[in-house]
Structures
1.
Amino acid sequence: MSVQERKKRERADRERLIVAAAREIAEEHGWDAVTTRRLSEHIEYSQPVLYSHFRGKREIIGAVALEGAAEMAAAARAATSAADTPRARVTALARAYLGFAESNPAVYDAMFRLDGGLVFAHEDTPEPLKDAFASLLDPLGEVAGDGVDPAMFTEVFWASLHGLATLGRSGRLPKADAERRTDLLVSRLIAA
Amino acid sequence: MSVQERKKRERADRERLIVAAAREIAEEHGWDAVTTRRLSEHIEYSQPVLYSHFRGKREIIGAVALEGAAEMAAAARAATSAADTPRARVTALARAYLGFAESNPAVYDAMFRLDGGLVFAHEDTPEPLKDAFASLLDPLGEVAGDGVDPAMFTEVFWASLHGLATLGRSGRLPKADAERRTDLLVSRLIAA
DNA sequence: TCGTTTGTCTAGCAGTGCTAGGATCGATCC
DNA sequence: GGATCGATCCTAGCACTGCTAGACAAACGA
């Protein structure tokens, strides 16, 4: 049934178009500007079409989050693979993480601030999220220290970076000294 | 002019009533449920009255945030004053901070997640926010370590706690082990 | 007692997420 | 080939949002 195949392909294409449009609008004007009307106008379909792909706006955010998780994992791995000591890898990881958050604020929000209906820290967490966590765990496990669960250490490290990223971007931390804060955090968290 | 005095007092009372109502609704049903209509119904005045006190919903969030900052500072000081070593003070501080965030999620969001139109980390930052930061800085300055700016250390410590609080509450960190994560964070951040 | 000011309310605007029901198009069957 | 039927999509509309203009009444000063 080549016809059905084609339709399925077209539907998948349109779904990608929706996610890309949502991401683009969010990155340009913030998530508040991602309304179903603007979105439908952007993809040149009417609003109800959105709801034949996603249960609602929340699921669209979730789709953007999954896309972002894959990219973030790739960025993390690219950064760590270029360093050759455990400590250098972790420093590179921290910088890459914060760099990603700063360069893709809307995607970052979809992943870690907004409600995209995704399940975290659970066995049926979506694969991209698990893999993103793994991309942090790999280099961090090397410096967790004796008797410290690598996963838990990764959670703490991740949370700390998340705090720096969100408080920094919302203007709650001084613009200056962001680099030095990162360095201090890394040097302290790494096992002595 | 006793009449004007009375009116001024009544206005101030009503303003407190608005802030209290916003806080109560937010704490009970989340900030999304704090609509101008529900709020006006709660205080038994019409919507436009809100706008004679606050420029908009954002300012109401800001007012709740300032109230919360004062309470958080008090909680922090109460917790640290009961401990007698620098390390014990910092541990108590961390627990108190996370406890406040968990017990008052809506207020915490008003302070550190939502946009309440408040200026942070600046000379004309509102006094309650400055004082809340000071309540963190006092015990943390003791363990910042040589050659480390106490303010910057406090920022890093605070951001880390903020990350644990927000990721934890949104279900992005495992419910279990929250205490152990806090302990690990504290023990690593404190100067060796 | 009569304006004037102050305070409050009703009514409404433009926008939101989301959906019911009708139209239209294309694939299928006689 | 032409009728039928199902999938696909759109128009129109719901209940809600933050916010405001303009009417109205009460309290005030002259």
2.
Amino acid sequence: MRTTINEPLPDKEECTSSLKNALDALSVINGRWKLALILCLMQSSKRFSEIQHEMTGISSRILAKELKDLELNDFIKRHVYPTTPVTIIYEATGYSRSLKSLIGELSAWGGQHREKIKESIRNQS
Amino acid sequence: MRTTINEPLPDKEECTSSLKNALDALSVINGRWKLALILCLMQSSKRFSEIQHEMTGISSRILAKELKDLELNDFIKRHVYPTTPVTIIYEATGYSRSLKSLIGELSAWGGQHREKIKESIRNQS
DNA sequence: GGGGCTACTTACACAAAGGAAAGCGGTTAC
DNA sequence: GTAACCGCTTTCCTTTGTGTAAGTAGCCCC
């Protein structure tokens, strides 16, 4: 129930700092659109209206905000070309590829979890 | 800007299903307390009031809700011992250990990201 | 000069997440 | 009997995230 007060827990400090990092990571990729946007732009660079068209359901307000957010975190870069009218292209940076293994883990775990939950619902009924 | 319509994107379908799984995983571990609770109970099984004491800041309403959630997802088990008064112990299940590598990835990425952002703020100023 | 396009911004609204405080049913301690 | 503890639940409120609709600045076309 409780380890004694004096015996430090196995790796409590390491654990809380690792928790802090994990929560930071979550806060960066969290939200309905962020991962989708990153993946979308990793497939190819696109303009605002093209992204809006591909991500059916996102409003321009949210898209603008999310793009700003992603740019701040260095996942994407905003290029302005002085054509008339001006062309603005959003491009995934190399840094967005640093998410690859994280997304891989998330996806692998998420996939097996869905299976597990489906299984346990079947067994329950 | 846009790949031609007929040439299918590198792995678009795989990508959207992987996105779906990743979002599922996020929805399960998402929230201010879930990961902390899992890690807390992985260190040792505990009673409601002990958890509440260890996680300073969580309200009983939220704690009860989160514990229910985690139990539904099979991360923890609720044991009732018929002592007087009844003792209730929450214990991390083996399944919660399946999160280990995911938490590891999150934490590793989060740690390096914080460094990177700090760096880029320094360079900017 | 009216309408349309692009890349947004602004104002408003709503729903979900989370927190504060009180209560509750059962028990033990005094 | 009354006070306290445990494991919650209930009520109310604030904050955060997201959505809808409209507007705007700059340019083009006719």
